[in-house]
Structure formats: C-alpha cells, structure tokens
Amino acid sequence: MKQKIGVGTAHGKIILIGEHSVVYNQPAIAIPFKEVKVITTITESHQLSVDCLYHQGALEDGPAALNNLKVVVNEVCRRLNQPTTFHIHIASTIPQERGMGSSAAVANATIAAIYDYFQVALDDATRFELVQVSETIAHGNPSGLDAKVTISNQPIYFIKNERLEPFDINYRGYLVIADTGQKGQTLKAVSALRVKKNNDPHWVNQLITNQGQLSNSVKEALSNNDAISLGYYLDQAHSNLVDMGVSSYSLNHLVSVAKQWGALGSKLTGGGWGGCMFALVDDIIKAQSLQEILVANKATQTWVLAL
Hints:
Elements: E1 5-17, E2 28-44, E3 49-51, E4 56-58, H1 67-80, E5 86-92, H2 102-117, H3 124-139, H4 145-149, E6 156-159, E7 163-166, E8 174-179, H5 186-199, H6 201-223, H7 227-244, H8 249-261, E9 265-269, E10 276-281, H9 284-296, E11 301-306
Parallel strand pairs: 3-5
Antiparallel strand pairs: 1-2, 2-5, 2-6, 3-4, 6-7, 8-10, 8-11, 9-10
C-alpha cells in the first residue's frame, strides 16, 4: 500500500528596503530568493514528531526555537479537525536567523504540507493567517511581509494592513549577499527600536518616515532602470538603520568594504543585530569578484541574486 504523504515548499526572501519601518505602516520592498528554500514532508506516524535542524523526536519535546511551529501545527489540525499523528520532516537551505525569512518559509511549507497530507485545499488568505500565527510567536509584531514573499514569484511592495502589490523590476543588476556569521536578532531589535521610539518619538518617527520615502524612491528607480539612484537610496537606508540602532559592527564593516570596493549601494537586510547585508553591482563578473572580497573580510558565506 502506498504511504500517505504531504509536501509543501517555500523559498527565502531578501528585504531590499523597509526593515523595521514596515512595522509602523511604512512601505517596504522584498524580493523572492529562490536559491534557498524549504521542503516540508509529512508522513504517517503514531505521534506528532519532527526531524529538523533544531530537533529530532516528539515535537512537544522540542526546544523553544520550535515554539512557533508547535503552535501553528496544532492550530492547523484544530481547524481541520484532524489528529496530530504524523511525522514532519523539514529540509531547509535557508540560513537560520539571518533575515532571509526562514521562520516564515518553514511555517509556509509546513502548513501547505499538512493541508496536502489531509487533501484539503488551502487558500491564500488562510495560509497567510496561519503563517502570521507562527510569526507572531517568532518575531512579536510581524508585518506580514515574510509570510507573503516566501511564496511569491515576484517582488512585493508592501504596506502593513493596507497594500500588497507584486511588481516587475525593469533593472538587470545583481545583489551580492553576505552573511556576517552572526545570528540576527529580529525580536530584540524590534523591541529595542520600540523603546527608542517611546523615548525619542520625534527623531525615530522622522527616521521611519524617511525610510518609507526611500522605499518609494527605490521602487521608482527599479522601474526606471536607474542604477545610480538606486544605489544612493540603498546607502541612505542603511544610514537610517544605523541611526535606529539596529545594525552591528560586522554588518557595517561588510557594507563599508563593499562600498570601498565600488558597489553602487549597500545595506543590511533583515532584522539586524547580525545576519546579512547585500551590495548592488551591475554585472556578474563584478558580483563574483565582490564575493571574494567579502569572504576575505570575514563574511562566512555569500550568494549572488540576479534582479
């Protein structure tokens, strides 16, 4: 007899601009990063178990890093009125806690796999709502951007609770993405910015508003094939994120290296306090050269993403 099975997939993401300000209803732009992905496979079992990077065994015995998965799996089964007697296998090439949407992608792939396992159709609205259940536990106050872009085939222009607009890029450049080797700390960075905003609302609100304006400018530059302006706006966005207090020495170092080398623009990507940065270049040869430079300056791994 053929074994019952369910499969779900999702990919990574890169936030081009709008980190942190998106939480405060300013626009952000994110792009799919299909070079890294998650595949979740559900098979029959006598108990709810999991095999993933963090844990092998009963899901309820998993570490705190899996709390979001525990909650969303149980919520899915409650909604479907199905027993939690299955095994979850999660295979991921998305670096953990690096701002690439790993938690949202895992949730997206796992939710889809469970629905597939029980042969129930999954609509986009339900999928988004369930991923947000997981993301709220993982990140506190999720914008919803990761939930959307980790299953999108197009770049997304996003305003929390207002607008979700896939759009096409009229620019053929490259992002060289580099990992500092340090885990990002999205939840702590979001909380720290909230405290900073409460203590100095005028200054922080000005930074947040400026980030929103830069997001709109980046979208226009992408549409108009304006590489020089695009690089400038990305540089300005990183400067704002530094002022917000969500960057780090390692991120700033790699951004500086990229700019000194000749990148058109460079900034951190994701929640900050670790994680990844990227630099904009205009051809693949330059991209490959910059990869070598960044690794020589202590980046632990790099990728090239064609826009």
